[in-house]
Amino acid sequence: MSSASKGDRKATLDAASWLFNVVTSVGIILVNKALMATYGFSFATTLTGLHFVTTTLLTTILKSLGYIQSAHLQSSDIIKFVLFANFSIVGMNVSLMWNSVGFYQIAKLSMIPVSCFLEVVFDNVRYSRDTKLSILLVLLGVAVCTVTDVSVNAKGFIAAVVGVWSTALQQYYVHYLQRKYSIGSFNLLGQTAPAQAASLLLVGPFLDYWLTSKRVDAYGYSLTSILFIILSCSIAVGTNLSQFICIGRFTAVSFQVLGHMKTILVLILGFIFFGKEGLNLQVILGMVIAIAGMIWYGNASSKPGGKERRSFSLPKTQDYSSLPVSSEPDEKVLAMAKVE
């Protein structure tokens, strides 16, 4: 296969990965918004636990059919990953509960510089001036169109710090584990989903009761709300998988930067389906700035020196970045997603 055809194939798979992630992420946001706002199912942590139960069931079935190869991760790595992931979910949920929406958006934006910091410290990555400026432009644009009222208290600030750092560490660890063990996204998801499902279902009902003063077992389940829960769990499988695929193919920083396209898309769809009262010149200007920053980041980071790893400063025993990642299962998943 020629280098040109290889490049075209990679570009196609990269685009399919992002499209897969954007569609599933936006879809689950809209479904969960309807489930919580319309049907009053406000048990976010328990719902996330159900998402991972569904993911575990699917990966178990695929493993039994031979579509997923067995992989053996060290228990310490699985425990670290699950802790990072669960603190991310809990921290961001509590941050949204205790802080204003404006500060919550600022906390989400701060994940980008934190992810950059992790790459610089652990991977010795160096960013060009254009790459740094493009990231700042994305942050500015998203801030302009999403950040409104900003109020925070001490406990809310602590929750935001925990949520931001644990989210950045969890996303970094996805990239790290795929390269350390040379496994694909579905294999990694199959190894980590059962532990996340068990831990979230264990603490989820208690945490949700603490946050909402409502019990999940006392919720008035109806046929419609159950169907929405099933739909949310089904879409979540794709959301979880697409996140692992994107971070594996790119990095946590690229996932965060280009991932803000989902924020812009959710805003646009919200204006289309739920009214245009929030649409004003400031929001439109912020969207334009953010999109321009994302395009700039894509061009700047792909150029030579735009974002490179200084591997000479890493000991050879720790240079996991040179390990190949089995992308065949991910490519099969993307192919099936495109056909469907």
Main β sheet profile: 2 strands, antiparallel
Instruction: Count the DSSP helices.
Output: 12
Radius of gyration, in angstroms, nearest whole number: 20 Å
Poorly predicted regions are 312-340
Strand order of the largest sheet: 1-2
Helix content range of the residues, please?
over 70%
Count of discrete structural domains:
1
Tell me the number of strands: 2
Membrane topology: Multi-pass membrane protein
Protein name: Sugar phosphate transporter domain-containing protein
Keywords: Membrane, Transmembrane, Transmembrane helix
Region (Disordered): 302-329
Please give a structural write-up.
- Its main location: membrane.
- The protein is an all-alpha fold and 340 residues long.
- It has one domain.
- It has twelve helices and two strands; from the N terminus they run αααααβααααααβα.
- It has a two-stranded antiparallel sheet.
- Helix 1 crosses helix 12.
- The C terminus is likely disordered.
